[in-house]
Design brief:
The chain contains two helices and no strands. With 50 residues, it is mostly helical.
Length: 50
């Protein structure tokens, strides 16, 4: 928020995106270590373009 008040939108955007990436990958990773998350094998299929 300080970067936004100082009129530095690029830093504000970087902080916002970095925070979201950390929440998704970091917190989800810790959660998966504590309790494995089941994933369907179909999610790992490769996409083929014809």
């Amino acid at each position: 928020m300080i970067a936004a008040f100082r009129k530095q939108p690029d830093i504000s955007l970087g902080n916002l995106l970095g925070s979201n990436v950390f929440n998704i990958l970091g917190i989800l990773g810790v959660t998966a270590v504590l309790k494995p998350i089941p994933v369907d094998h179909v999610a790992f299929r490769t996409v083929t373009f014809r």
